[in-house]
Amino acid sequence: MSDIEWTERTWNPIGGCSRISAGCDHCYAIVMANRLKSTVQKYEGTVVEDDGRIDWTGKIGRADDKEFFRPVNLKKPTIWFVNSMSDMFHENVADADLIEMFRVMQNTSRHRYQILTKRPSRMALKTKELGLVWTPNMWAGVTIEEDKYARPRLRELLKVPASVRFVSAEPLLSALPNLDVAAIDWLISGGESGVARTVRPSNPDWHRDLRDRCRAVGTPFFFKQWGAFGATGARARSKKNTGSLLEGEIVQQMPSDVYDAIDNPRPNWTRIEARTRCSVPDEPASWLDLCVSTSSPTPDDHDDAWLRLAGV
After folding, report:
1. What pLDDT was estimated at residue 228?
2. Is the pLDDT of residue 279 over 90?
């Protein structure tokens, strides 16, 4: 299970990344990859330490088959945060690996997948270039930590025909007056966490403004955490001490399941009736012709076919 409040599990078929904007300054994944580089195949060579500072090398490693196909083997419907230790649309991700990750997600319709990137232009480009099909269980998201990224990153995100298009404003480093919250299906916000002295506080007014604007247009809003600094601006020992109360309430809404491919609602998740932008392909991907059936294939048929093709 995952400690990230807005998901259930993480799935990391690849590892490695590069810093691209201010939201990467205190990246938890770099520290974790450095710890695992000697024992986990996909992190080998992905980080470098120079004069006490750890950074990414830009190398992208592929996980072993057990991890790469992990969602295929889990029958329980699950919400997966995809590549929490990388960026699925990093420029060094091989097209073949990208296509294969999409195949796993397309053919495990019982699960939901949350794909978050800081490279939405490449996400839009590869979607078109490779003919990637976004099935209803695949959500496309972009991180927008500062207002200067609000318009350009959102513009690229909206080119992607995903059923849910969302924004993560974490760590929130400025107000986001130029973010069109009516154009998205879900907004996450949160302050920066970590123990470094350079961790930056988040102005409570920025989060309140996003919450109020989302409420006005019916966009689900999820306030994840205050982070290293509480609502008063005081530094805390850990994010657990600052909590996630926003003006005395927990505001952790999720997108509606109206358009979802999963038929098992979870009553513990807050639901809001949200706009539906469902992109369902007219036909299954051509490679599914390998699945011979005397009737229309069901999601389970697709899953079983993928298990055979993947050899797992």
Report:
1. 64
2. no
